[in-house]
Design goal:
Radius of gyration: 17 Å
Strand order of the largest sheet: 1-9-6-2-5-3-4
Number of strands: 9
Number of domains: 1
CATH class: Alpha Beta
Order of helices and strands: HEEHEHEHEHEEEEH
Shape: globular
Largest sheet: 7 strands, mixed
Helix content: 25-40%
Structural class: alpha/beta
């Protein structure tokens, strides 16, 4: 695994890093146990049973359903790419409490190092996860990272969306969702995206659009399941 020296943080930041991840872990662990999960999938797709059984594969979802995904997939031991910033460190420490691993990088900084780290993860037989439109959007538009990783490793890409029936929606770029206690949450799966090893560079955009369409189908399928209008 690629390692790097962690950035220095101020005293205030160190205090936040020591306290906030544990508070978030405790609250999400408590509230998450009240959520009732249901699974739906496109024809021919076999979902992971309650977030378990993931192997050397890549998984993608939209940034807005991070909270529900964090709880649901906590048993997979998956690795996610996280930025090197203070916010990234905060996210990484919180995810570690749920059993996730991380490599550092982002779509704007350290992208190559992050992809190489995830390549090692896939080669070791473990799953990798992308918030496909994160960390800054635009909303519902996947970046090229998952396609490049699939091309490097031969791993297929799974597309899914977790939609709560009742949630608070934040006024943020991603319309971030905070599922309410005791709500139903549908886990919606779309068809896998495969990227051949001999795919030409000029065809990457076509595969990115294919993946984008798969994640969106999963989202729209979830909204339809609850009779919620598309946003």
């Amino acid at each position: 695994m690629i390692t790097e020296e962690k950035p220095a943080f101020t005293l205030r930041q160190r205090l936040v890093l020591a306290v906030v991840p544990r508070v978030v872990w405790a609250l999400l662990s408590l509230v998450g146990r009240t959520w009732r999960f249901e699974t739906i999938a496109e024809e021919g797709v076999t979902p992971l049973p309650f977030g378990e059984g993931a192997g050397a594969e890549i998984f993608c979802f939209w940034h807005q359903c991070v909270l529900a995904c964090t709880f649901y997939f906590r048993r997979t031991g998956a690795t996610i790419i996280v930025s090197r910033s203070f916010d990234g460190e905060l996210i990484a420490r919180t995810l570690e409490l749920f059993g996730y691993r991380n490599v550092r990088g982002s779509s704007s900084r350290g992208a190559r190092e992050g992809l190489l780290g995830l390549k090692q993860v896939i080669e070791s037989g473990r799953p990798a996860i992308f918030t496909a439109d994160g960390p800054r959007g635009p909303i519902f538009e996947t970046k090229m990272g998952p396609v490049k990783l699939a091309h490097l490793t031969g791993a297929r890409i799974g597309a899914f969306h977790l939609q709560p029936e009742r949630a608070w929606s934040m006024r943020s770029w991603d319309q971030f969702m905070v599922p309410k206690p005791f709500t139903r949450v549908v886990v919606s799966w779309a068809r896998w995206t495969r990227v051949p090893a001999d795919l030409a560079a000029e065809q990457f955009e076509q595969k990115r659009e294919e993946l984008n369409g798969a994640i969106e189908r999963a989202r729209l399928q979830a909204l339809k399941h609850f009779g919620i209008g598309a946003k």
